[in-house]
Amino acid sequence: MKRHHSDPRLPRKLYIKTYGCQMNVYDSGRMADLLAPLGYAATDAPEGADLVILNTCHIREKAAEKVYSELGRLRILKEESAERGNQMLIAVAGCVAQAESEEMRRRAPVVDLIVGPQTYHRLPELVARAHRSTGAVLDTEFPAESKFDHLPDTQAVDGPSAFLSVQEGCDKFCTFCVVPYTRGSEFSRPAQAVLAEARRLVASGVREITLLGQNVNAYHGEGPEGRDWSLARLIYGLAEIDGLARIRYTTSHPRDMDDALIKAHGEVDALMPYLHLPVQSGSDTILKAMNRRHTADDYRHLIDRIRNARPDIAMSGDFIVGFPGESDLDFADTLKLVTDVTYASAFSFKYSARPGTPASTAGQQVPEAVKTDRLAALQQILDAQQVAFNHATVGCQAPVLFERIGRRQGQMVGRTPWLQAVYVEAGPEMLGQIAPVTLVGANAKSLTGTLASPAGETAHPTTVQVA
Ligand code: SAH
Ligand code: SF4
Ligand code: F3S
Question: pLDDT for 367-383, tens place per residue?
């Protein structure tokens, strides 16, 4: 017998698979919130789901191609569901949906619904239309209204650490990047809306909030007094919320790192000493060709100022190797910058030509083998820096926020202020608590620690020296 999907009382299974950045993670949570009133409850496997959403990423070719192979697998599941008399709806959301909607319609007829990052607040209506329609329903507009005004209050709180999108889109147009095209132009949510969402998160047990934006430090949301608030002002406002112990933000652009934000790192206890500040390259020629609009020395000076304000800050970054025209000397400049700055963690990628971006048609594309060698050389240095950073914290006592129960019996996993994962023997009652932990061992990706005696002094974070 065919199930009647228009009956709002029926429990339905929703499977969401998320690719890409933290903003997609946030959006996936909001999609679940939007669909809950229609009877959709989250499930952790696509088999037997009534609605599958792939929330996709277009940043590099590999990320986009993953979506098409997943759709191939889903086609089989959809056919199996149909044989049992069930209709499985398949939706593609996120940046691939935005960038390739027409191509996707042609290439993957299995898709019932294509929705962009700025229109997913219309999902309930689109899902209803997809049930009635024979072809794919498509909504990839950049509407005048903000989706944030149409989203229900956050419900899907998952543990003591939460993401909160405060800014979206980008007007910087780095020549390699698709984000300005997939997410649209820069937009900041009003400060009051952000503060209200943060208070709700804290009331449901959240202790740490990571503010999100493709260019989060370009935040300039309308303030309560009518004047815009900067990210620094917003952080001071959030720091007043009782129970909110930790504030982080990501991703930042070097050009938007203003004095007030740097000062906040020295003044706001809840603002964690970790900063993801992508530089992409250490060569001024390449930075110019990328349209980053700063030099390698601008970035070095910026790091000096940030470290003056907060000496123990853990630096993180993003790098692209093999950007068109990158010579051996340009690449050597990147290695030099990495050595000068020293990172606690970093992400590095081979340049991937993205359709529609200016760099993709530049004459001097770098051969794949050269990119592979450069990536390996860069990652060797970055990995060594990460290990050194982790080892430098061994022997310290650090406040750890326990975020989840570990896989081993009696084990909890938490994070230090510097965003290192720490495995500690502790009971599940520690979930959501911040407790002093003595860091006893380190490897590349994580640390081990022991709960310090409750009377133990918490070491001042600035006692950590990075080698
Ligand atoms: N807004 C952030 C970055 C967002 S994209 C910023 O300005 O730094 C995340 C990272 O993906 C980028 O920092 C960059 O390192 C990488 N990236 C973006 N486009 C890429 C491309 N075409 N090829 C390879 N890496 C890319
Ligand atoms: Fe992309 Fe970031 Fe550059 Fe914007 S600032 S175009 S998101 S890399
Ligand atoms: Fe990817 Fe879109 Fe985020 S392209 S990195 S999901 S903004």
Answer: 999 999 999 999 999 99
State yes or no: pLDDT of 467 exceeds 60.
Answer: no
Q: What is the pTM of this model?
A: 0.94
Mutate to test the pocket of ligand 1, among 19, 23, 58, 59 (most ligand atoms within 8 A of CB): 59
> Do 157-272 and 394-463 fold alike per CATH?
no
Average pLDDT over residues 310-331: 98
List Cα–Cα distances, 317 to 141, 174, 348, 357, in angstroms.
Answer: 32, 16, 8, 22
| Domain 280-393 falls under CATH 3.30.750.200 | yes
Atom of ligand 1 at shortest range from CA of 174: 7
The amino acid that residue 456 corresponds to is G
Q: How confident is the model at residue 7 (pLDDT cuts 50, 70, 90)?
A: low
pLDDT in tens, 43-62: 999 999 999 999 999 999 99
CA-based nearest residue to 101, from 89, 113, 87: 113
Show the tokens assigned to 150: 């149409």
Q: Which CATH superfamily is domain 394-463 in?
A: Nucleic acid-binding proteins (2.40.50.140)
CATH 3.40.50.12160 fits 12-139, yes or no: yes
Please report, for the chain, the start and end positions of each structural domain, with discontinuous segments joined by +.
12-139, 157-272, 280-393, 394-463
For residues 209-239, b (16+ Cβ closer than 10 Å) or e, as one string?
bbbbbbbbbbbbbebeeeeebbbbbbbbbbb
Please state, as a whole number, how many other Cβ atoms lie within 10 Å of the Cβ of residue 29. 21
Q: Is the pLDDT of residue 257 over 50?
A: yes
Rounded to the nearest angstrom, the distance between the alpha carbon of 409 and the centre of ligand 3 is 36
Question: Which is higher by pLDDT, 351 or 132?
Answer: 351
Q: Which residues line ligand 1 (CB under 6 A)?
A: 59-60, 176-177, 179, 214-215, 251, 253, 278, 280, 318, 320, 349, 351-352, 354
